[in-house]
Design a protein that fits this description.
alpha+beta; NTF2-like_dom_sf; single chain; Nuclear Transport Factor 2, Chain: A; SnoaL-like domain-containing protein; five-stranded mixed β-sheet
Amino acid sequence: MGQWTKEHLLDAWQHYEAVVERCGKSNDWNDYADLFTEDGRYVDDVDPDRNRREEIRDWITGIYTNPVARAVRTFVTKWFIVDEERGWVIAEFDNIWDDPGNGQVFSFRNYTLMKYAGDYQWYFQEDQYNPQKRMEAGMGWMQARQAVKKSVKEIVS
């Protein structure tokens, strides 16, 4: 048996999901950074590793100053596995952009490994995704958004 019960890990995971949902809606990612221990580590396919909570905070709040990234506000968990022995959670997410105004859906898949530290904090997160798919979805969203804005201007003019 691991250090935490499966029920506690599930509760911690649900807390994580609730914080992510709240941060996505508010576009304030400080509470997300607070999910990590002070020495927490975040590994991403594209960006350099983050090795402390404040590095994670600077990185995540910086990302969401970009208007295209800021429009990714919904993160749907497709499935997750709790490894009680290790205190890990492995999950698949859909990262979904806001509706660009024409009903199209733009998203990319992400696999995440979380390692639990206790007290509703995580000491490690690693995200795996296809950077090309992320870029294509972002570009598609941006082009759709611009097309919608252009048609609105034409209608108004």
